[in-house]
User: Fold this.
Amino acid sequence: MVDQINHHLYRKRGFYYFSRRVPKALLGDYPKPRIVLALKTRHYRDALRQSQILSKRLDDQWFHMQLDAMGLDNVH
Assistant:
């Protein structure tokens, strides 16, 4: 059974997973349209913390990739 916990976190067979869709503008840079990672924990607090860190890192990476695609990679 799969339980959806929050926007990017779900539990399957007792373990937590992180799942996030790749933005449409960046689909060509990824082999699949969704990123799924096993967080290797059964503890909600640990999973939530890890999912927040992963989500923030992806947001930052995707922001810079989109700037590069628009030719604005040298803007600080």
